[in-house]
Specification:
Number of strands: 0
Order of helices and strands: HHHHHHHHHH
Low-confidence stretches: none
Shape: globular
Strand content: under 5%
Distance between the termini: 39 Å
Amino acid sequence: MTSKSGSFTQACTIPFVIYVVGGSFLGRLTTQQYPFGYAAVAGLSALSLWWLMPAQTRRLVMPIHGRVAWGLLVGVVGIALWIVLSHLHLERRLTADLPTWLQVGERVSFNPLDELDSLSAKVAFLAVRLLGIAVVVPLIEEFFWRCFLLRWTIDPDWQEIRLGTFTWSSCLIVTALFTLAHPEWFAAASYCLLINSLLYWKRDLWQCVVAHATSNFILAIYVLWTGHWFLW
Protein backbone atom coordinates (compact mmCIF):
# COMPACT_ATOMS: atom_id res chain seq x y z
CA MET A 1 0.00 0.00 0.00
CA THR A 2 1.42 3.37 -1.00
CA SER A 3 1.46 6.38 1.31
CA LYS A 4 -1.18 8.05 -0.85
CA SER A 5 -3.57 5.08 -0.75
CA GLY A 6 -2.96 4.65 2.97
CA SER A 7 -3.88 8.28 3.57
CA PHE A 8 -7.11 7.90 1.64
CA THR A 9 -7.97 4.76 3.61
CA GLN A 10 -7.50 6.75 6.80
CA ALA A 11 -9.70 9.54 5.44
CA CYS A 12 -12.50 7.06 4.76
CA THR A 13 -12.25 5.21 8.07
CA ILE A 14 -11.01 7.48 10.88
CA PRO A 15 -13.97 9.92 10.87
CA PHE A 16 -16.35 6.95 11.03
CA VAL A 17 -14.42 5.36 13.89
CA ILE A 18 -14.44 8.64 15.81
CA TYR A 19 -18.20 8.93 15.39
CA VAL A 20 -18.94 5.33 16.38
CA VAL A 21 -16.55 5.16 19.33
CA GLY A 22 -17.51 8.61 20.55
CA GLY A 23 -21.18 7.82 20.14
CA SER A 24 -20.82 4.68 22.27
CA PHE A 25 -20.01 6.89 25.27
CA LEU A 26 -22.95 9.27 24.87
CA GLY A 27 -25.33 7.00 26.76
CA ARG A 28 -23.16 7.35 29.86
CA LEU A 29 -23.43 11.13 29.95
CA THR A 30 -25.81 13.13 32.11
CA THR A 31 -28.58 15.25 30.66
CA GLN A 32 -26.42 18.33 31.03
CA GLN A 33 -23.40 16.68 29.42
CA TYR A 34 -25.14 15.01 26.47
CA PRO A 35 -25.55 18.07 24.18
CA PHE A 36 -21.88 18.97 24.58
CA GLY A 37 -20.84 15.35 24.10
CA TYR A 38 -22.82 14.98 20.89
CA ALA A 39 -21.51 18.29 19.54
CA ALA A 40 -17.94 17.18 20.31
CA VAL A 41 -18.35 13.80 18.58
CA ALA A 42 -20.00 15.26 15.48
CA GLY A 43 -17.53 18.13 15.35
CA LEU A 44 -14.45 15.91 15.69
CA SER A 45 -15.78 13.55 13.02
CA ALA A 46 -16.39 16.41 10.59
CA LEU A 47 -13.05 18.02 11.38
CA SER A 48 -11.16 14.76 10.84
CA LEU A 49 -12.85 14.25 7.46
CA TRP A 50 -11.99 17.79 6.40
CA TRP A 51 -8.40 17.41 7.62
CA LEU A 52 -7.70 13.95 6.20
CA MET A 53 -9.48 14.39 2.87
CA PRO A 54 -8.53 17.60 1.03
CA ALA A 55 -11.20 19.28 -1.10
CA GLN A 56 -9.42 18.30 -4.31
CA THR A 57 -9.53 14.62 -3.33
CA ARG A 58 -13.21 14.84 -2.40
CA ARG A 59 -14.01 16.40 -5.77
CA LEU A 60 -12.18 13.62 -7.60
CA VAL A 61 -13.78 10.81 -5.62
CA MET A 62 -17.22 12.36 -5.31
CA PRO A 63 -18.00 15.06 -7.89
CA ILE A 64 -20.89 17.19 -6.66
CA HIS A 65 -23.68 17.86 -9.16
CA GLY A 66 -27.38 18.63 -9.33
CA ARG A 67 -28.58 15.47 -11.08
CA VAL A 68 -29.77 13.89 -7.86
CA ALA A 69 -33.41 13.01 -8.55
CA TRP A 70 -32.78 9.32 -7.96
CA GLY A 71 -30.85 10.04 -4.79
CA LEU A 72 -33.74 12.11 -3.45
CA LEU A 73 -36.28 9.44 -4.40
CA VAL A 74 -34.27 6.61 -2.86
CA GLY A 75 -33.82 8.70 0.28
CA VAL A 76 -37.58 9.21 0.63
CA VAL A 77 -38.44 5.56 -0.07
CA GLY A 78 -35.64 4.34 2.18
CA ILE A 79 -36.66 6.33 5.24
CA ALA A 80 -40.33 5.45 4.77
CA LEU A 81 -39.32 1.79 4.80
CA TRP A 82 -37.07 2.40 7.83
CA ILE A 83 -39.86 4.04 9.85
CA VAL A 84 -42.44 1.35 9.05
CA LEU A 85 -40.09 -1.54 9.86
CA SER A 86 -38.81 0.16 13.02
CA HIS A 87 -42.32 0.45 14.42
CA LEU A 88 -42.85 -3.30 13.97
CA HIS A 89 -39.96 -4.08 16.40
CA LEU A 90 -39.38 -7.40 14.62
CA GLU A 91 -35.85 -7.81 15.98
CA ARG A 92 -37.06 -7.50 19.57
CA ARG A 93 -39.65 -10.21 19.00
CA LEU A 94 -37.06 -12.40 17.32
CA THR A 95 -34.60 -12.15 20.23
CA ALA A 96 -37.05 -11.87 23.14
CA ASP A 97 -36.43 -15.43 24.38
CA LEU A 98 -32.65 -15.28 24.02
CA PRO A 99 -30.22 -14.47 26.85
CA THR A 100 -30.06 -10.76 27.63
CA TRP A 101 -26.63 -10.33 26.07
CA LEU A 102 -27.98 -11.65 22.75
CA GLN A 103 -31.04 -9.41 22.69
CA VAL A 104 -31.20 -6.26 20.60
CA GLY A 105 -30.09 -3.15 22.45
CA GLU A 106 -32.00 0.10 22.41
CA ARG A 107 -30.89 3.27 20.67
CA VAL A 108 -29.64 6.00 22.98
CA SER A 109 -32.32 8.64 22.54
CA PHE A 110 -32.32 12.20 23.84
CA ASN A 111 -35.38 14.42 23.79
CA PRO A 112 -34.15 18.02 24.08
CA LEU A 113 -37.70 19.32 24.37
CA ASP A 114 -38.03 17.53 27.73
CA GLU A 115 -34.44 17.41 28.92
CA LEU A 116 -33.32 20.99 28.28
CA ASP A 117 -34.79 23.95 30.11
CA SER A 118 -34.27 27.07 28.02
CA LEU A 119 -35.62 27.64 24.53
CA SER A 120 -32.20 28.77 23.32
CA ALA A 121 -30.60 25.52 24.54
CA LYS A 122 -33.28 23.45 22.80
CA VAL A 123 -32.90 25.32 19.52
CA ALA A 124 -29.10 25.19 19.67
CA PHE A 125 -29.03 21.45 20.28
CA LEU A 126 -31.59 20.72 17.57
CA ALA A 127 -29.54 22.78 15.10
CA VAL A 128 -26.36 20.87 15.97
CA ARG A 129 -28.17 17.53 15.92
CA LEU A 130 -29.74 18.26 12.54
CA LEU A 131 -26.39 19.35 11.12
CA GLY A 132 -24.82 16.18 12.44
CA ILE A 133 -27.46 13.75 11.23
CA ALA A 134 -28.19 15.37 7.85
CA VAL A 135 -24.70 16.52 6.82
CA VAL A 136 -21.89 14.94 8.85
CA VAL A 137 -23.28 11.41 9.16
CA PRO A 138 -24.17 10.94 5.46
CA LEU A 139 -20.67 12.01 4.44
CA ILE A 140 -18.66 9.94 6.89
CA GLU A 141 -20.89 6.86 6.56
CA GLU A 142 -20.99 6.84 2.76
CA PHE A 143 -17.22 7.26 2.54
CA PHE A 144 -16.84 4.36 4.97
CA TRP A 145 -19.55 1.89 3.91
CA ARG A 146 -19.90 2.52 0.19
CA CYS A 147 -16.62 4.13 -0.89
CA PHE A 148 -14.26 2.04 1.26
CA LEU A 149 -15.76 -1.13 2.75
CA LEU A 150 -17.78 -2.32 -0.25
CA ARG A 151 -14.53 -2.35 -2.23
CA TRP A 152 -12.15 -3.43 0.53
CA THR A 153 -14.20 -6.60 1.05
CA ILE A 154 -13.55 -7.42 -2.60
CA ASP A 155 -9.82 -6.70 -2.50
CA PRO A 156 -7.65 -5.13 0.25
CA ASP A 157 -6.05 -3.12 -2.56
CA TRP A 158 -9.47 -1.53 -2.74
CA GLN A 159 -8.65 1.62 -4.69
CA GLU A 160 -7.97 -0.56 -7.72
CA ILE A 161 -11.61 -1.71 -7.59
CA ARG A 162 -14.02 0.49 -9.51
CA LEU A 163 -16.61 2.28 -7.38
CA GLY A 164 -19.91 0.41 -7.58
CA THR A 165 -18.40 -2.98 -8.44
CA PHE A 166 -20.82 -5.70 -7.35
CA THR A 167 -20.06 -9.02 -5.70
CA TRP A 168 -22.47 -10.99 -3.55
CA SER A 169 -19.94 -11.45 -0.78
CA SER A 170 -19.07 -7.77 -0.41
CA CYS A 171 -22.71 -6.71 -0.57
CA LEU A 172 -23.81 -9.21 2.07
CA ILE A 173 -20.84 -8.56 4.38
CA VAL A 174 -21.39 -4.81 4.36
CA THR A 175 -25.14 -5.26 4.82
CA ALA A 176 -24.58 -7.57 7.79
CA LEU A 177 -22.15 -5.16 9.46
CA PHE A 178 -24.39 -2.16 8.77
CA THR A 179 -27.31 -4.09 10.29
CA LEU A 180 -25.40 -5.00 13.45
CA ALA A 181 -24.38 -1.36 13.86
CA HIS A 182 -28.04 -0.40 14.36
CA PRO A 183 -30.68 -1.63 16.82
CA GLU A 184 -33.28 -1.59 14.02
CA TRP A 185 -32.01 -4.71 12.27
CA PHE A 186 -34.66 -5.21 9.60
CA ALA A 187 -34.86 -1.51 8.78
CA ALA A 188 -31.08 -1.22 8.61
CA ALA A 189 -30.66 -4.28 6.39
CA SER A 190 -33.33 -3.09 3.96
CA TYR A 191 -31.92 0.42 3.88
CA CYS A 192 -28.34 -0.73 3.31
CA LEU A 193 -29.38 -2.95 0.41
CA LEU A 194 -31.30 -0.05 -1.10
CA ILE A 195 -28.37 2.37 -0.93
CA ASN A 196 -25.98 -0.32 -2.13
CA SER A 197 -28.25 -0.86 -5.13
CA LEU A 198 -28.24 2.86 -5.88
CA LEU A 199 -24.43 2.79 -5.96
CA TYR A 200 -24.33 -0.31 -8.16
CA TRP A 201 -26.75 1.32 -10.58
CA LYS A 202 -25.40 4.86 -10.73
CA ARG A 203 -21.78 4.31 -9.64
CA ASP A 204 -22.09 7.73 -8.05
CA LEU A 205 -21.18 8.24 -4.39
CA TRP A 206 -22.76 11.70 -4.34
CA GLN A 207 -26.16 10.16 -5.13
CA CYS A 208 -25.74 7.93 -2.06
CA VAL A 209 -24.81 10.89 0.13
CA VAL A 210 -27.86 12.81 -1.11
CA ALA A 211 -30.10 9.79 -0.44
CA HIS A 212 -28.67 9.35 3.05
CA ALA A 213 -28.96 13.06 3.84
CA THR A 214 -32.54 13.16 2.56
CA SER A 215 -33.48 10.17 4.70
CA ASN A 216 -31.92 11.57 7.84
CA PHE A 217 -33.47 15.00 7.35
CA ILE A 218 -36.94 13.50 6.87
CA LEU A 219 -36.38 11.29 9.93
CA ALA A 220 -35.54 14.37 11.99
CA ILE A 221 -38.73 16.12 10.88
CA TYR A 222 -40.74 12.95 11.56
CA VAL A 223 -39.34 12.60 15.08
CA LEU A 224 -39.98 16.26 15.88
CA TRP A 225 -43.52 15.99 14.53
CA THR A 226 -44.50 12.69 16.18
CA GLY A 227 -42.33 12.63 19.29
CA HIS A 228 -41.00 9.15 18.47
CA TRP A 229 -37.59 9.90 19.93
CA PHE A 230 -36.62 6.21 20.09
CA LEU A 231 -35.81 6.54 16.37
CA TRP A 232 -33.36 9.39 16.90
